[in-house]
Design a protein that fits this description.
Length: 231
């Protein structure tokens, strides 16, 4: 059996929502051209989620087909995102094949399931869920031991309470990465209609508290508008 690119099906398949080429909108590599692979499926329902279209559907693609689809983009960096990419059993194999092809691989995860299968195959961007997400299950604590110094941790801040929660966790000294990212969930994000926080307010709190973090905005939404999805 062959797929749409004429490649032989091998059983090494993943369910893919989309593959695209853009600038990295977040992380310490913001602004760098990336290839993006968005896998389908997520077991969380965060209040501010802007990629609900990735919860279901998608197209089955082999690892080889995915890699071939990236070739015209001519990028060094690849981000695997979702949804929650680690839910798919063949994600580690995809990471390994991309590394074999010479790509610098990043993977974004909500941190509520084990990152052990991919910890040595990619730069991990772990999005620790704050209470305001509605999905704060604290499974991330089991993953801290697998994070490497050059991995990154992200907090999406929806309220003053979220900020205090994240600040206390950061100041506890238990987070092992050099990069810790704070991003404001702006008013009206997702479908919940929660008030959110303004970027200026968050920036001022970071400076006031002397937090050792990187403030970030979603660059893709600054450039292409608030409806633009990203990582």
């Amino acid at each position: 059996m062959t797929n749409t690119l004429g490649l032989q099906k091998t059983g090494r398949e993943l369910l893919v929502t989309e593959i695209f080429h853009s600038l990295q909108g977040e992380t310490s590599l913001v602004g760098v051209p990336f290839s993006f692979i968005r896998l389908t499926g997520c077991d969380l329902r965060c209040s501010y989620c802007d990629t609900q279209y990735a919860f279901s559907g998608g197209t089955r693609m082999s690892v080889d087909e995915i890699v071939q689809t990236l070739e015209p983009f001519h990028t060094s960096h690849v981000l695997i995102t979702g949804g929650e990419p680690i839910l798919q059993k063949n994600t580690p194999e995809l990471c390994a094949e991309l590394v074999k092809k010479g790509y610098l691989v990043s993977i974004e995860t909500h941190g509520e399931i084990s990152i052990e299968p991919i910890k040595d195959l990619a730069r991990v961007i772990m999005d620790i869920k704050t209470p305001g997400s509605g999905m704060c299950r604290e499974g991330f604590k089991e993953n801290l031991k697998w994070l490497k110094p050059h991995d990154e941790i992200k907090f999406v801040i929806t309220s003053a309470e979220d900020y205090s929660w994240a600040r206390d966790l950061i100041n506890s000294g238990c987070l092992p990465t050099r990069e810790i990212l704070l991003c404001a969930a702006t008013p009206g994000a997702g479908n919940s209609g929660f008030p959110g926080v303004q970027p200026q307010w968050l920036a001022e709190r970071i400076l006031e508290d002397r937090l050792p973090v990187r403030f970030q905005v979603q660059l893709h939404k600054v450039i292409w508008g608030p409806d633009k999805t990203g990582v």
